[in-house]
Amino acid sequence: MNRQEQTTLKSDIDRHFLKLALQEAEKALSENTYPVGAVIVDERNNIISKGRNRVHAQQDLTAHAEIGAIRNAGPLILEGKTQRKHFTIYTSLEPCPMCTGGLLFANIKRVVWINNDDEGFGGYRKLRDANIFDKRFHEVEVMEEPFHDLKVKQMALLDEWELNPNNIKNLRKSANVQ
Ligand SMILES: [Zn+2]
Asked: Do you know which InterPro entries this protein is assigned to (predicted)?
């Protein structure tokens, strides 16, 4: 297999798992919560766990997709850290500061996301570029927005979320809070 074929294969694999992350995001929206989904895989591309946002479903403000995936992985995450395994997380949106911290703690070595989050709480790039925890961030490979068509789909989910009654702006409006 030549290098170009290998690159194509890797890209196909990335696309496959990002689509699964997107499916989790769609499920989250159907549960009337923020549409983000995540999938963790090991170095052989076995799925370790999936997660999706459950903030409104569980009334838990920390129930983000990436944290969910880390929790759902159970002991495998600690085992992976002990054995220096190489896990990848695929997520539909750039991780927030909380999840970025979670990924560093969980020793995730590759982070791939569908959509940068410049308007919301996107935090991965801000923290990485702040010259803090450099040693940790250096160990992580990042891939931002590799597929435009998947990005369009995630953006459509976010647009739909704007209209959802559970969106904080709509909750405030209905509670008459400015
Ligand atoms: Zn998060």
From this structure: APOBEC/CMP_deaminase_Zn-bd, CMP_dCMP_dom, Cytidine_deaminase-like
Helix (H) or strand (E) holding 149: helix 148-163
In the chain, the amino acid numbered 68 is G
Question: Per residue in 87-96, pLDDT tens?
Answer: 999 999 999 9
Digit-coded pLDDT (tens) for 104-115: 999 999 999 999
Q: Which domains does the chain have, with CATH numbers?
A: 3-164 (3.40.140.10)
- Enter the pTM of the model: 0.95
- Which is catalytic among the residues 5, 24, 31, 66? 66
CA 113 vs CA 40, 71, 119: distances in Å? 12, 19, 15
Has 79 been annotated as catalytic? no
Cα of 2 to ligand 1 centre, how many Å? 38
Give 144's strand partners: 113
CB neighbourhood size of 110 (10 A): 18
